[in-house]
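Quick one:
INPUT:
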């Protein structure tokens, strides 16, 4: 039973990776809970689920119901804790203890817990997830501006370096990813290839993992490699 924090610069492919990795894990015999503390959750849109107040991250943090009663079920092994669709903001109206308790509960309830951390480490759930995580998947894709994000968060990145898996999440065909990795002075442990059809597939509520065709198979192989690294 492990916690994995997925982190990186804005628009570095965190949510897309989180959703497809969770889906891939659920295709085996492991349960997975995907947590997103972001308001107006992109995850909810991709999964095409309506997160209701009584089955949301907010309800789970309050702790009035058991964790199994507050998750949204995607399939038999894949569960989500995200903000309710009715929420306009999520202004950390919860405590350190509530955040820690939630992570401890999900760890003992599910085989894998994936946390789609906001880029800003001042979010309590993101901060505690990075602290408690067995592994941090650091997305290195996005725009050239992500170099500035890495510089701004140098101290936090150094803190989790010993448990970081570097993921080249290639979200743009226009970007020279090799040059970006050179700027960041880091070679990815796993590269997730760019998929031109990603936006269309996600708008239709379809996972990128498991798609047919050469690019679809390449994407699935990369996700499986990442899953293998997580288990090693």
């Amino acid at each position: 039973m492990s916690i994995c924090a997925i982190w990186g610069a804005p628009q570095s492919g965190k949510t897309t990776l989180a959703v497809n990795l969770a889906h891939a894990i659920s295709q085996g015999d492991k349960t997975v809970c995907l947590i997103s503390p972001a308001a107006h959750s992109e995850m909810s849109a991709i999964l095409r689920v309506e997160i209701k107040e009584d089955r949301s991250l907010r309800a789970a943090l309050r702790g009035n119901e058991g964790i199994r009663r507050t998750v949204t079920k995607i399939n038999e092994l894949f569960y989500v804790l995200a903000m309710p669709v009715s929420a306009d903001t999520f202004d950390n109206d919860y405590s350190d203890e509530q955040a820690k308790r939630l992570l401890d509960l999900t760890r003992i309830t599910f085989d894998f817990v994936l946390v789609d951390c906001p880029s800003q480490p001042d979010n309590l759930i993101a901060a505690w997830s990075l602290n408690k995580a067995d592994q941090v998947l650091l997305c290195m894709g996005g725009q050239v501006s992500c170099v500035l994000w890495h510089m701004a968060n140098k101290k936090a990145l150094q803190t989790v370096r010993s448990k970081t898996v570097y993921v080249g999440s290639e979200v743009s065909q226009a970007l020279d990813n090799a040059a970006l990795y050179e700027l960041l002075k880091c070679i990815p442990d796993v590269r997730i290839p760019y998929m031109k059809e990603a936006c269309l597939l996600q708008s239709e509520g379809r996972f990128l993992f498991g798609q047919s065709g050469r690019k679809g198979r390449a994407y699935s192989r990369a996700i499986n490699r990442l899953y293998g690294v997580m288990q090693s």
